[in-house]
């Protein structure tokens, strides 16, 4: 086991629930009872394609994720350039590049979500997340969008960002509030401060 793994499982209150041993890997399932932190305010996390935006009335921060989009574009370009006649070899190579893309994207998200949770713990602010499950239904074939655009939007890692934030917050006892679609419906169309409409009904123009 690595030094980091030994350090984590040696912390007070951490228990190893189970483990899975394979030929090349040892996976541990650990848990600990963490008291819930008392928070004085909340902070919202907006998961976008190229950034994570975190803020409230006092402060707004942006965590750049544009590199994730570049990694995805590069991976698609490399896979589409494969010209091997053997489908098995082409599939194996594409799978390897796909795993590489997932690992690199996950690492970038890890750095951002780790900072988001750490700042929230320091300032005693609960994290609020919007429910955007099913948004990929907007980017299906036949919706009048190009194939390139659909591929880019369907590679959006909003679910992985939420997963990382939630498990890291639970690990330190930070409350996470998940808002329903009804509670957030139309929230992106109006200014949260003055209530002015920011986007037209056609969605072609948006005020800043």
The H-and-E topology, N to C, reads as HEEEEEHHEHHEH
Portion in helices: 40-55%
β-strand percent reads 15-25%
Shape: flat
Q: Tell me about the biggest sheet?
A: 5 strands, mixed
Class of secondary structure makeup: alpha/beta
Tell me, rounded to a whole number, the average pLDDT. 82
What's the level 1 CATH class of the largest domain? Alpha Beta
Word description of this protein:
The chain is an alpha/beta fold. The chain has 2 domains: 1-33, no CATH class; 34-184, Nucleotidyltransferase, domain 5 (2-Layer Sandwich). It has 6 helices and 7 strands; from the N terminus they run H-E-E-E-E-E-H-H-E-H-H-E-H. The protein has helices at 3-9, 66-80, 87-123, 147-154, 158-172, 181-184, and strands spanning 15-21, 26-31, 41-47, 51-55, 60-64, 125-130, 176-179. It has a 5-stranded mixed β-sheet.
Structure in a nutshell:
This protein has 208 residues and is an alpha/beta fold. It has 6 helices and 7 strands; from the N terminus they run αβββββααβααβα.
Q: How are the SSEs ordered, and which strands pair?
A:
Elements: H1 3-9, E1 15-21, E2 26-31, E3 41-47, E4 51-55, E5 60-64, H2 66-80, H3 87-123, E6 125-130, H4 147-154, H5 158-172, E7 176-179, H6 181-184
Parallel strand pairs: 3-6, 6-7
Antiparallel strand pairs: 1-2, 3-4, 4-5
Helix pairs in contact: 2-3, 3-5
Features:
two-stranded antiparallel sheet, 7 strands, 208 residues, flat, 2 domains, Nucleotidyltransferase, domain 5, five-stranded mixed sheet, 41% helix, alpha/beta, 19% strand, 6 helices, disordered C terminus
């Amino acid at each position: 086991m690595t030094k980091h793994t030994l350090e984590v499982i040696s912390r007070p209150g951490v228990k190893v629930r189970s483990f899975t041993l394979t030929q090349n890997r040892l996976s541990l399932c650990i848990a600990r009872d963490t008291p819930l932190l008392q928070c004085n305010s909340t902070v919202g996390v907006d998961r976008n394609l190229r950034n994570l935006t975190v803020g409230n009335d006092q402060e707004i921060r942006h965590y750049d994720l544009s590199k994730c989009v570049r990694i995805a574009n590069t991976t698609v370009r490399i896979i589409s350039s494969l010209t091997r006649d053997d489908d098995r070899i082409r599939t194996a190579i594409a799978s390897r590049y796909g795993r590489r893309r997932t690992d690199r994207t996950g690492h970038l998200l890890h750095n951002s979500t780790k900072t988001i949770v750490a700042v929230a713990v320091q300032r005693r602010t609960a994290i609020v997340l919007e429910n955007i499950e099913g948004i990929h239904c907007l980017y299906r074939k036949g919706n009048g969008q190009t194939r390139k655009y659909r591929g880019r939007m369907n590679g959006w890692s909003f679910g992985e960002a939420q997963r990382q934030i939630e498990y890291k917050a639970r690990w330190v006892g930070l409350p996470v509030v998940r808002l329903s679609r009804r509670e957030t419906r139309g929230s992106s169309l109006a200014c949260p401060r003055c209530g002015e409409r920011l986007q037209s009904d056609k969605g072609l123009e948006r005020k800043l």
